[in-house]
Amino acid sequence: MATVTTTAPQPPAPAVMPKRTRFSPLFLGWIALLVVMLTIGVISALHVLINGLGVTNLSDELPWGLWITVDLSSIGLGAGAFTLSAAVYIFGMKRYEAIARAAVLVGLLGYSSAMIALFVDIGRFDRFYHPVLYWNVHSVLWEITMCVILYSSVLVTELLPIIVESTPLRRIKLLNSFSHFVHRLMPFAALLGMGLSLLHQSSLGATYGILTARPFWYSPSAPVLFILSAIAAGVSLTVFVTVLSGKLMRRQMVPDNILNNVAMFAGFMCLAYLYLKLWSWAATNYYSHVPEQQLGVEILAQYTPYNFTFWFGEVLFGALVPAMFFLWKPLRRNRYALMIAALMVIAGLVINRWNMTLSGFVIPLDWSPGVSNVFQVNNYAPAPVEWGVAIGIVAYAWIAFTLGVRFLRLYPEARDLKTGEKVFSDLHHDEHHH
Q1: Would you call 154 exposed, middle or buried from its count of C-beta atoms within 10 A (0-12, 13-18, 19+)?
Q2: Could you tell me the CATH number of the domain that includes residue 224?
Q3: Neighbours of 129 (CB within 10 A)
Q4: 337: which residues sit within 8 A by CB, 6+ positions away?
Q5: Does residue 18 fall inside a structural domain?
Q6: How many CB atoms lie within 10 A of CB 123?
Q7: CA of 84: how far to CAs of 80, 90, 270, 383, 425, in Å?
Q8: Which contiguous run of DSSP H or E holds residue 276?
Q9: pLDDT above 90 coverage of the chain, percent
Q10: What is the spatial distance between Cα 271 and Cα 266, in angstroms, rounded to a whole number?
Q11: What is the pLDDT of residues 364-382, one digit of tens each?
């Protein structure tokens, strides 16, 4: 008798699990917010470019305001690029390449943000190229313009190999060879970049410091103060975006010892800046009694919150306290404390650039107690359109950095916090395997 074999009923096939969303809701929400901010900036900029600077609160008596503060702050915050690039390619500290690549992108975004602010601010935007064609070698501002253009070109050159190796462009043999050629030029590019950056960072301070016609600005220390504050804030911004990116992406972006050493360096720069700043203040406000200088101090104390923003914003909040955070080991190892300290240094730099820009213009050149009713103290508050442009510039920088962290190999030593494995494997090994 033939036996009949019956197959056991098979369990229903499991439902196909949907693939994990490529972009998290947090990422999409962040990009959407930045796009809204960028749209506000574009509309505001078009309003200014079409209707002229008359729609702002700038005037002949006070021609520099919020946009120049954005310009000076952006350039200062980009100083981490030349600092860390010099450490890697000039001083041979190759281990800091783990964070130097991100600093290069931050630097390029800072300089391009400054150029966008200037493009809107110059009034005759159709003549933006004139400094390149018509040289005025006696002008500090012309020298700054040329250095910014050249150093931005250096930053683009440093970023090109990162873009090629991080994208399918590396499979194009010609581009891959070009990328390796550019990488071999990095020591020269870093040396050139350090020279250009030091030159124009100091020249920004000299723009104010050499103006004897406005005694409150005049200070031989201003060029060095601008360099020190830029290095401290630029490195702090790189530390902040590195820690923040790691928290959001659940990665260790750079080894702990590298991050701690960079933070310590930022702390020492804060102290160096603070030391020179206090001596500069003492030399111009405490020990000397130049009548015009004293008059400027009195006017600013009476009509503006300058004293509070100087002592609390620049000295205490922007330099002394974050230096303690950076240099005290228990706080430095706390990543949230590290981000707070970095934000304090960044805020201190912005406050300093705002104070430097407005303090000299608030005091009229013809002001004296006898004619105070004729020549009023200049007042300024940014117009909504000025805030709109500034918001758009900030959004541009954050969008670009967000996409850079997402798609570029900015942190070659990044590791997944759960597995401890490197996020980026050896690209050369991958290419050979394929």
Answers
A1: buried
A2: 1.20.1630.10
A3: 9
A4: 325, 331
A5: no
A6: 15
A7: 6, 10, 16, 37, 23
A8: helix 256-281
A9: 60
A10: 9
A11: 776 555 555 556 788 899 9
Task: Count Cβ neighbours within 10 Å for each residue of 209-236 and write b for 16 or more, e otherwise.
Answer: bbbeeebbbbbebbbbbbbbbbbbbbbb
123 SS3 class: coil
pTM: 0.89
Assess contact for 64 and 380: CB atoms under 8 A: no
Structural domains in the chain (count): 1
Angle in degrees, CA 412, 329, 87, rounded to 5: 40
d(CA 245, CA 85): 20
**pLDDT band for position 150 (50/70/90)?**
very high
Residue 330, token pair as written in the block: 């228990």
Where in the sequence is the domain holding 270, given as residue range(s)? 28-368+390-433
| Unique residue bearing structure tokens 């597995």 | 419
CA dist., res. 406 & res. 423, Å (int) = 12
Q: Rounded distance, CA 38 to CA 396, Å?
A: 6
CB 376 within 8 A of CB 83: no
